[in-house]
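User: Assemble these into one structure.

Assistant: Restating your components, then the assembled model:
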Amino acid sequence: MDELILNLKKEIIEVLNLEDLTPEDIDANAPLFGDGLGLDSIDALELIVLMEKNYGIKLEDASQGREIFKSITTMAAYINEHRTI
Amino acid sequence: MILKIAKYSIVANFKAQIDGSIVYTHPERNSFPEFLTSLYRSFPIQYPKFFKMDNLSKTGFLAVELCLKDSLAVKDESNFNTAIFMLCSSSSLDTDIDFQNTIQPAEYFPSPKVFVYTLSNIVMGEIAIRHKIFGENTCFISESFACQSVLDYIYQSFAETEIENAIILWDDYLDGKGESVALLVEKENDGNKDKMNFNIETINNIIK
């Protein structure tokens, strides 16, 4: 799980162009949106693409996103359970 | 009515200029995007959104950042009487190609972050957000910066609306090569009589 969390941090930094951040800067339990990483709605869409492209997970119900994308830890837990790649 | 160029900046050829003086030169000439990042890092600002922009937006953003540096006319507060007029030749074609690459049949993953930049006028949105500009913003596709019909439109806008000053931006980026020229233009007043007139001849002199 720790390895998945580290990979997710690296992927998010790359995909969302968070150039001034390193994986160590990101608290895996901090909120991804709002006060945490401060991601926006376009970033949320990009995370959905990341889940499909890198882990073969297609979110059928967009409302699930609120729980899944709470933090990197919740994202990793969902990926761990549902990944097809 | 006479319009004056209070200040101008140029980002091109791996250099940045303010009012004709070079303020930054990139040590290498191999990558224009790397030059843009280095130029940004030379500024005393923290604006992480810069890294999310496409190259057309980054080029225009940096030119305007230089042009409005220490500006008293456009402050970091609500600027309701400031307009933005932008001209570009390649429009968003560079980013359109990037987006097309994300929708190939063999690997179809349309990228939302690329898609949002497939309209050139988003450059003005980025600038308006950064500098809290609420006035008119209009984007023209033009072969060159020196376009008389666009100048006529700008003069008419100053004459018929409450615009007090405007950013006139030439911004172009395609295939790894970009250039941007930003002018801060305002109505003639007692304090700017010695400044250059805003006309085609002056624009040609600035970009030559």
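Residues 41-55 of chain A form the longest helix (15 residues).
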